[in-house]
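Input for the complex:
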Amino acid sequence: MAERRIRVLIAKPGLDGHDRGAKVVARALRDAGMEVIYTGLRQTPEMIAEAALQEDVDVVGLSILSGAHMALVPRVLELLRANGQEHVKVFVGGIIPDEDAPALLEMGVHAVYGPGTLTDDIVADIRRAVLGGENGNPTDQS
Amino acid sequence: METLADRVLAGQRYALARTLTLIENDAPEGLATLASLFPHTGRAHLIGVTGAPGTGKSSLVNRLAHYYRHPPEGQPRRVAIVAVDPSSPFTGGAILGDRIRMRDLSGDPGVFIRSMASRGALGGLARTTANVVQALDAAGFDIIFIETVGAGQAEVDIARLAHTTLVVEAPGLGDDVQAIKAGILEIADILVVNKADRPGADATVRALTEMLKMAHPTQETIMHHGRRMVINAGQKTQKKEEHPSWVPPVLKTVAVDNRGIHELAQAIARHRAYLEETGEWHVRDRVRLQSELENMLGEALMQHWRAHTAAEHYQSVLEEVFSRRLAPTEAVDRLLAQSLPPAA
Ligand code: B12
Ligand SMILES: Nc1nc2c(ncn2[C@@H]2O[C@H](COP(=O)(O)OP(=O)(O)OP(=O)(O)O)[C@@H](O)[C@H]2O)c(=O)[nH]1
Ligand SMILES: [Mg+2]
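Predicted:
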């Protein structure tokens, strides 16, 4: 009866109130069979990292349309690493200018998405990132 | 070498989170870790929170947990929360949104919140919720809240797992007693009318109180074969009434404004004291462990039997049942006639 489900935290960091995209993505992942923890608006990077740890997620998805991504994303990555969760894949979506995307990827973000992205593509990318070639548990290190 | 269980017992939060995942996934390492943790369980006060969708269960848990972290007197208690939401029956996916209401608890190392999807189980909990709760108990949390799936009817599973069960209602039932689902009185240790800022709260309190009056004064709830049963105190007239029976209080709260939380916490403390004084704490613990053991034993016996029964034999007996030549009871006798080798 062993079951392994991809667990994803979808969070909205900062003061940005645009939550449509986050909800659309959360629902698409749910419909693809994933377990999505949705924490709502106005999350600090500390709250996001804490939730990622307690929930032992495979993926953290950040939705940012406020323009504050260059401040918020590095902090989330730093906290995840500090908690021993460097293996967690971080996905970022929203309004991210083209010139910022390479910098985010450089920092360790797995992928960046803008308006109009097909949710099917997001689903496929998350599956590939988490399950990779093997289908075991990528995070077991005990 | 330091095991995962050692790290959980040492208070490492990530080790605990990993353990919960392994337990949820039925991974062998999760079950082994749970076995090592088992001697350290049995101390936490398990508080179930159930009620219809949107009545304010998560908001109340948020307030209560905050209260136990900042009590008006005494030491702060360590609090864990397990919040169960439904999995989609079609895709198996789930949106777990209870944390949205629990933001006041963030940044506090004395709190641990875990969301769980029901993964197909009915009855308001996931199949592995009891095991997840055991791991949190071993990790040293003093109080563990278990929020069920928001369900229309009273969920019996939670009453079996928890020491104290809160049933959360919201105004809108009005005087319509019919709307209050049967079964609630059997599982509720405390009835909470949340959203008391809304019109109709007093009517709901009255309706619930009336139902309790009709049901309770001469009754007592006991545990019987893993189920709670209500018996009439009159049936044991001669027996000295050492302990008054527990009559569930009906309390009003406004979770969004933090009103009524102190009184609710006091009612929970009274219920705990009641369980301890009457010995029911102990009884519930034993009943629960026994029923968990028997469930596991049942599954294991079935597997063992299947492993040692030829599929063709089983199929041929089944066919006889299908064609009405053999009654199911006779079929059972025949299938159990062979003796099984001892399990490895
Ligand atoms: C609808 C909207 C609003 C609505 C929001 C309603 C809501 N609850 O979400 C309202 C009217 C409230 C609003 C208000 C404001 N808005 Co506005 N808004 C928009 C608008 C038109 C569409 C956004 C939207 O919902 N798109 C639909 C969703 C489905 O798309 P999406 O969010 O992009 O998500 C997709 C991808 O980005 C990606 N994705 C998103 N998140 C994630 C997460 C993960 C993990 C992954 C994998 C993928 C992913 O996948 C999704 C599916 O394809 C955009 C313009 C635009 N075209 O984007 C402006 C826009 C975002 N708003 C803008 C602004 C400035 C504001 C205001 C500040 C305006 C003001 N001065 O008052 C306020 C601020 C509100 C607040 N509190 O933060 C600016 C932001 C500028 C910037 N960042 O530099 C934009 C870009 C408009 C513009 N061109 O100026 N807004
Ligand atoms: N007016 C009012 N609203 C409240 C109160 N408590 C909670 N709410 C609101 O009711 C809604 C549902 O609250 P939750 O705490 O998520 O309810 P829940 O029972 O956990 O919901 P599910 O888990 O989805 O079944 C939210 O919008 C809360 O803000 C209250 O005391 N008064
Ligand atoms: Mg809830």
